[in-house]
Amino acid sequence: MSTDPHTPRKIMVTGVGANPGFGLARSLTRLGHTVIAADANRLAPGFLLPSVLPRVIPLASDPDYARTVAGLCRELGVEAVVAGIEPDLEPLTQMAPQLDADGVRLWLPDTWSVHACTDKALFHRVLTKHGIATPRTWQPQDIDQVPDGCELVVKPRRGHGAQNVHFVRRREHARVLCELVPEPIVQERIHGWEFTADCLVDRTGHASVILRRRDLVKAGLAAVSTTFDDANVRDLVAQTLGAVGVRGVCCVQGFVSGDGTITITEINLRIAGGFPLTEAAGADLVGQMVNGLFGLPVDHNRLTYRTGVFLTNYTETLAVGDIAELERTAASKGEAP
Q1: pLDDT tens, 115-131?
Q2: Which of 56, 53, 52 lies closest to 43 in space, CA to CA?
Q3: pLDDT band at residue 206, thresholds of 50, 70 and 90?
C-alpha cells in the first residue's frame, strides 16, 4: 500500500443521509478520493453527490449488515470504511478482524471505548470516575432520587441525532416519558452556551482540538457556529478523550455555564456535522484523518485554526424527481437505489 499522503484512496462512508456522512463524503471527493456512499435509505442525499458510487446497505441492526458491507468492500476494492453515523460503530468494530484480513482499514478505538461513547449511562460513570463534570444521570427506576426542582432531559441510552430527546421540569413527566422513549435514561439539564470540539487523536494518544461555539442549534445541529479558543475547555476535552481512550476522528460536546463551569455531555466517534467550519478556519481535519486511517503520521501542525470564523447552515431542497426514473438510471449503471 502506498505511503504517499497524496495517493487517491477508495473509501466507503456510511450514513450519507445525515449531515456528518454527507459532508465527509463531499470533502473526500474534493480531495480526490473515490467515495462509496453507503446508506440504508435509497433516497439518501449523499447518493446525489457528484462522483460518488452510491450503494444501499442494510440498517446496522440488520443481521445482513456485515455480509453486505464486507461483500461491497471486496467487490469494489474498498481500502477503508469510515462510519458517518453512530449505529454503524458497533457492527464495524465487530467486523474489524474480517475487514483487516481483506485489506480494508478502520480507525476506531477498542470495543470498550466504543461502548463508553455510545452508552450514555456508561459514559457518565467513566467521566464521573475521572472527576470530569458531566450531567447527573439516573436510570428510570431511580427517578425518585432526582432532587426537587431539577430540570431534566429524557433520552435514549444509546440514541443519536437528537432523536427522542425530551425536556421536562417534573419527575412525574420524566416517569411517563420513560414509558415511551426506547431504553431511556434521565439526565440533569445543563444551561449555558454550548460548544463542539472537533478532535483528531493519533495512535500515540496525541490530540488536536478545534473548538466551535454552537451559537444557534436546531434539531441537534449547529445552524450558526463560531470558532473560539479557551485553554480550560481545550484541556478538559483532552482529559475526556484520554479517559475514554479515543483514537481517530471524533467530536466532543459540552456546555460552559455562566460561572465558567465546563460540563462534558457526550463524545461522538465520528466527524461532526459542523466540521466544514473547522476546515474553513484552517484545520486540515479530513486530510489528516485520511493519513491516520492509512497508518501515516498525523501532522498536528496542520490542525491549527483561526478563531472568530463563523458558519451558517440552512436546509434546502437538494432534488425532486420521479422515483421510477431514478431507479431505471441507477439500474443501468449498476448503482443504488
Answers
A1: 999 999 999 999 999 99
A2: 56
A3: very high
CATH topology of domain 191-312: D-amino Acid Aminotransferase; Chain A, domain 1 (3.30.470)
Pick the CATH number of 136-188 from 3.30.70, 3.30.1490, 2.60.120, 3.30.310: 3.30.1490
Q: Provide the residue type at 205 as one letter.
A: G
For residue 275, give Cα distances in angstroms to 132, 136, 185, 211, 225: 25, 28, 28, 10, 10
Statement: residue 223 has pLDDT above 90 = no
For residues 261 and 252, what is the distance between their CA atoms, to the nearest angstrom? Answer: 16
The two beta strands, 53-56 and 137-138, are unpaired
Query: What is d(CA 194, CA 225) in angstroms, rounded to the nearest whole number?
Result: 10
Task: Count Cβ atoms within 10 A of the Cβ of residue 154 and give its class: 0-12 exposed, 13-18 middle, 19 or more buried.
Answer: buried
Distance CA 275, CA 295 (A): 22
